[in-house]
């Protein structure tokens, strides 16, 4: 009986370890405010309320750019008190027709809430299905993007749009797929990309030119 209990406890421990895989470790103290001068926590006696604060999320970002969108982050870079807490907050703003291109967060899932306007959002499941999960969201709607899956946001309304999102990592990462493929330094070979996308090399050269101008 004792051996059976030991086996069950061991299996539960393994299951818990697997379930926690990929999740950032929890803090071992009340807080660990990031110290830019070192990799250690700032002395708690020197920590101030402003270390847990960031303002300006009520101000729309500048969307005067080719994508017609802007991203305003509240991460550990802006709020040192987020260190070890596994959170990032993002504000998206969109001009008419604005787009946040297909991208991946390799270390976080994302939950999005539309503040104003109409957004077409979607993510693509992994191979072999490559299934698109897409929906038009209106003010107050919420949508979830699972960790590591390519997703996008597009303003399909008649005016501007805005949304706010939370990600469960203090460093979720951002891989913009077009520039990640065609804007590398040094460049990926034209032969490789032409074969991968089954297109002529002249098309690959044109796409590369968009990111190396």
UniProtKB/TrEMBL annotation:
InterPro entries, per database record: Cupin_1, Germin, Germin_Mn-BS, RmlC-like_jellyroll, RmlC_Cupin_sf
Residues reported to bind oxalate: 105, 110
Disulfide-bond pairs as recorded: 32-41
Manganese among keywords: yes
Domain Cupin type-1 positions: 57-205
Record-linked SUPFAM superfamilies: RmlC-like cupins
Position of the signal peptide: 1-21
UniProt keywords, alphabetically: Apoplast, Disulfide bond, Glycoprotein, Manganese, Metal-binding, Secreted, Signal
GO CC, any one term: apoplast
Name of the featured protein: Germin-like protein
